[in-house]
Amino acid sequence: MLGKQTNLVEQKEKAGQLIIVIYEKDNTIRSSIPTNKSIPSEEVIRRSGLCPRDGSNVFLKNSRGIIQTSEALIKPGSTVFIGSDSIIEHCIIDNITWKSKDGNIGTGKLADGTIAHVPNVEKGEKCWIVRHTERKSFRDPKLIHAECHKFNLGTKAYNVGDIVRARPSPDNSNSLLFDPHTELWSINLKISLPEFTDEVEISQLFKGLLWSVKITHVNRKNNRYKGRLLTSLTYNPKLSKKRRRKK
């Protein structure tokens, strides 16, 4: 009887009527989802029955190891991997907390309760983010705030005009940008200072801080990008709130 069931599964796989979901940490744990049409990855996750019971973030990766967005369609006959061991997190922006001439910063709650601060977002936006730095809330030590930036999970993770976070080298000229396809900090980002500013003063004021940087050039072939510091979206405890608003 078991042999007949196995043959039936194999026949359905060949006919492209199944989506095979494999647990990333243990490939012997898997699930088969019968379907005659493509279905969103979030539905694949739900129907697989392989979600952690603790409510932690879950990701679906294709056969090349690339994380799929919740709306991405998974075709019948595909084999995908489910896992939760990733520094990539999902965030829904529920509030805009800062606005400036260069853009805004929004906040949203992550799965563990941390408040994510993300530049260049809209209220209600769903985005994928990576954390950079964390700090405890001054009002509630149990509450954690994280400085983050968003990216795309498609073939083009970043585009000209996107705003990311970066901690520059000691000379304030280079940094490594997070690559969501490999989950490594491996994209070379050359950073310039704002035009018509005193470079020496700016370098001193923002030295050692986490910068908000607007991408101005993308070279995907060589994995080399260029960007410009946005002082109005970079938190600087050295500056008064009044002075920050003037920038």
Point out poorly predicted stretches: 1-6, 242-247
| Helix/strand/pairing category | mainly beta
Helical stretch tally: 4
Overall 3D shape: elongated
How much strand? 35-45%
Give structural attributes.
mainly beta, disordered N terminus, single chain, Ubiquitin-like (UB roll), five-stranded mixed β-sheet, 247 residues, 2 domains, six-stranded mixed β-sheet
Describe it.
- The protein is mainly beta.
- It has 2 domains: 85 residues, Beta-grasp domain (Ubiquitin-like (UB roll)); 158 residues, no CATH class.
- Strands 7-11-12-10-9-8 form a 6-stranded mixed beta sheet, with no helix packed on it.
- The protein is elongated, with a radius of gyration of 22 Å.
- The termini are far apart.
- The N terminus and C terminus are likely disordered.
Compact overview of the structure:
The protein is mainly β. Helices cover 14% and strands 40% of the residues. It has two domains: 2-86, Ubiquitin-like (UB roll) (Roll), CATH 3.10.20.30; 89-246, no CATH class.
Topology:
Elements: H1 2-14, E1 18-23, E2 30-34, E3 39-40, H2 41-48, E4 59-61, E5 73-74, E6 79-83, E7 88-92, E8 95-100, E9 103-109, E10 115-119, E11 126-136, E12 144-151, E13 163-166, E14 174-179, E15 184-192, H3 199-206, E16 211-219, E17 224-229, H4 241-246
Parallel strand pairs: 1-6, 10-12, 15-17
Antiparallel strand pairs: 1-2, 3-5, 4-6, 7-11, 8-9, 9-10, 11-12, 13-16, 14-15, 16-17
